[in-house]
Amino acid sequence: MSDHSPGLPDVVAAARRLRGRVRHTALERSLALGERAGAEVLLKLECQQRTGSFKLRGALNALALQPAAHRGRPVVTASAGNHGLGVAVAARELGIGAVVFVPAEGSATKRERIRRTGAEVRPIPGGYDAAHREAEAFAARTGAVYVHAYSDPAVVAGQGTVGWEMLVQRPDLRVLLVPVGGGGLIGGVGIAARMLAPGARVIGVQSTATRAMHASLAAGRVVSPPEEPTLCDGLAGDIDATSLALAQQVVDDLVLVPETAIGPAVRFLLQNEGILAEPSAAVVAALLLEGSHHFGAGPIGAVISGGNVDASTLKGILATNGPGPTSPGAEAPTTR
Amino acid sequence: MSDHSPGLPDVVAAARRLRGRVRHTALERSLALGERAGAEVLLKLECQQRTGSFKLRGALNALALQPAAHRGRPVVTASAGNHGLGVAVAARELGIGAVVFVPAEGSATKRERIRRTGAEVRPIPGGYDAAHREAEAFAARTGAVYVHAYSDPAVVAGQGTVGWEMLVQRPDLRVLLVPVGGGGLIGGVGIAARMLAPGARVIGVQSTATRAMHASLAAGRVVSPPEEPTLCDGLAGDIDATSLALAQQVVDDLVLVPETAIGPAVRFLLQNEGILAEPSAAVVAALLLEGSHHFGAGPIGAVISGGNVDASTLKGILATNGPGPTSPGAEAPTTR
Questions:
Q1: N or C: which end of chain A has fewer CB within 10 A?
Q2: What is the CA radius of gyration of chain B?
Q3: Contacts of A51 in chain B (CB under 8 A)
Q4: Alpha-carbon dihedral angle through residues B112, B113, B116, B117, given to the nearest 10 degrees
Q5: What is the DSSP letter of B22?
Q6: Could you tell me the pLDDT band of residue A208, with boundaries at 50, 70 and 90?
Q7: Do B311 and A324 touch (CB under 8 A)?
Q8: Which residues have C-beta within 8 Å of that of residue B202, sequence separation ≥ 6?
Q9: Cβ <8 Å between B127 and A332
Q10: Is B313 close to A328, i.e. CB distance below 8 A?
């Protein structure tokens, strides 16, 4: 794929390319969120995607589209999160070597999960930025192919298959709610929606602590809000000019939900729907639960983009008081 | 369906009947469990089934097979758990009224989840047994159809579609590991396996605190071990002569894992595979992690039968020390 912005044909080609390699995840009605929103709410369950997030789609599409001259070269990226795992699994399945640079300070379990795919894991001290620099230097030195997490057009087209599937499953969706980090997912979903459902609104959601895209759309240029503590590790970090330009074209609104609403939204989905969403995905539920936005008649399609949440993080979320869990010991002994 | 024991044709007919109504869930390789078991391990992800467990299969099959004379009658059951939810959702989709008796002491959130499907929920004080008696009395009084959780032959055939799908997905499975409560799931899976893969071993797993089937197989008759506290609410309770007779025919081994191994197994799956299994489902992982059984070359197919775990229960599991979670705060801030 060339460097120009991808279009619907690229998304459709990606959907064909990914068939049998990714799950056609369910678009499932949430009665509990529907009651709160006063409209039909349908959840796109990418938390049930292979690797636990949508990131596999973009990674597979990008690796499958490498030009012939690059065939056989290893792929490299920096991420101990969903993108790193997506790239590692995609490389394994396409028979390509993978090197994943991860922050040495990060979770050993996450590293191990990537290592098990057969990828080489290189822990780098100094946080994500240092790992990212080392990965780029490695690519320049060795000719390995660097897969960018959100602005590679093949990655965007791959993520767009989420929106393509949703609109095939329910062509009548009036609103699409999409978690926004770097902007790859909403860019791809927006491309699909603009063409397939021109009347539908594409609404991005971020937490107040991960508002790079929100701030950049407001400023009309890439800005980097200061880092803040957040549960939404998958939405944190900067964006770039490519993803901003795409968002300016295909995103209708971008809404912030309070960081404090994220934990309760994770609990709500777990308790009322039996769905484990990672905090970065729960932003869309937080928006519906907050009730400050009225979305009209719906139906509303909301992307639950992933389900990978660290056990220690989840423990913290469940330990917090708030709506959701009922008291322990209140269960009947036998509920078979 | 008549009262005689179901066979493979009943399971195949159920699979056809359920097509498009239940998810053909993934059978996904677990590299982490495979490392521990020294064999290929494939997880049947019924935790990703609609309603969060396999119970929908049996409920839908049973309701679809009601004789014409019963059409239009409401369906009744007693359970605030996966069976209750499965029956409620099945009734909704088939346009049948449903009345679900639940222990008044149980979780309000679970009751609410059933109520949202449109079912009538009747809370009964006095625990599960009282709810069960009331449900049977209601059925006798009103002509409503009582759907038994595990020994109705149509329910067994419906649950058997789990095994049918597994052996279609991977006909080379040598071992099937199945959580055992009342015995409906392993009965159905065993029927499928006996015919489709006669060389494969069907191995049931229970926790030491939920060993009614284990004790009954050992005694050669139905026995009721005293109730013990357990995380495995879906496996607790008694069995009956019907499910025992079927297990005697189709189950090779039945293995107990220590109740103390259940929490760590839930944590292991969450942390290493990003899978939220309910404790009743995690028994199969606990057995593989325990390492006391060597299963030969595999491949091993293990049924992760559900993913509905109460937030308060999960909180307790994650709060316990042991293998699994890494320390909080050890995460890199940005892992996109």
A1: N
A2: 19
A3: 274
A4: -140
A5: B
A6: very high
A7: yes
A8: B176, B178, B186, B189, B190, B193, B194, B250, B251, B252
A9: yes
A10: yes
Give the distance from residue A246's alpha carbon to the nearest chain B alpha carbon, in angstroms: 19
**Three-state SS at B190:** helix
The nearest CA of chain B is from the CA of A163 a distance in Å of 20
Q: How far apart are CA B75 and CA B59, in angstroms?
A: 10
Looking at beta carbons, which residues of chain B come within 8 Å of A82? 335-336
pLDDT class of B92 with cuts at 50, 70, 90: very high
Is it the case that residue B332 has pLDDT exceeding 50?
A: no
Q: Around Cβ A198, how many Cβ atoms within 10 Å? A: 7
Tokens of residue B126, six digits: 């006095």
Contact A237 B336 (CB under 8 A): yes
pLDDT digits (tens, 9 = 90+) for A295-334: 877 899 999 999 999 999 999 999 875 543 333 333 333 4
- Tokens 């189950």 locate to B251
For residues A185 and A53, is the Cβ–Cβ distance under 8 A? no
Q: Is B181 on the interface with A (CB under 8 A)?
A: yes
Asked whether the ipTM of the predicted complex exceeds the cut of 0.90, the reply is: no
Residue A199 tokens read as 């009347």
pLDDT value at B20 more than 50 = yes
Q: Do β-strands B175-179 and B201-207 pair in parallel, antiparallel, or remain unpaired?
A: parallel
Q: Which residues of A touch B273 (CB under 8 A)?
A: 113
- Distant-in-sequence, close-in-space partners of A86: CB < 8 Å, separation ≥ 6: A51, A53, A55, A56, A57, A58, A59, A60
Contact B318 A313 (CB under 8 A): no
> Quick one: how far is CA B178 from the chain centroid?
9
Of B23, B48, B318, the CB nearest to A318: B318
Beta strand B201-207 with B75-78 is: unpaired
Residue pLDDT, tens place only, B111-158? 999 999 999 999 999 888 889 899 999 999 999 999 999 999 999 999
Helices (H), chain B: 8-18, 31-37, 55-64, 82-94, 108-115, 127-142, 153-169, 184-196, 212-219, 241-250, 262-273, 279-290, 311-319
CB contacts of A227 in chain B (<8 Å) are 333-334
Which of these, A95, A138, A92, A82, lies nearest to A118 by C-alpha position? A92
Calpha distance A162→A306 (Å, rounded): 12
Assess B311–A contact: CB distance below 8 Å, yes or no.
yes
d(C-alpha A16, C-alpha B179), whole Å: 37
Is B336's CB within 8 Å of A234's CB?
yes
How does pLDDT run across A77-101, given as a tens digit for each residue? 998 899 999 999 999 999 999 999 9
Q: Does B209 touch chain A (CB under 8 A)?
A: no
Q: How far apart are CA B17 and CA B8, in angstroms?
A: 14
Instruction: Report how far residue A150's alpha carbon sits from residue A236's, in angstroms, rounded to the nearest whole number.
Output: 13
pTM exceeding the 0.80 threshold for the entire prediction: yes
Mean pLDDT computed over B240-258: 96
Cβ neighbours of B95 (radius 10 Å): 8
Contact A314 B318 (CB under 8 A): yes
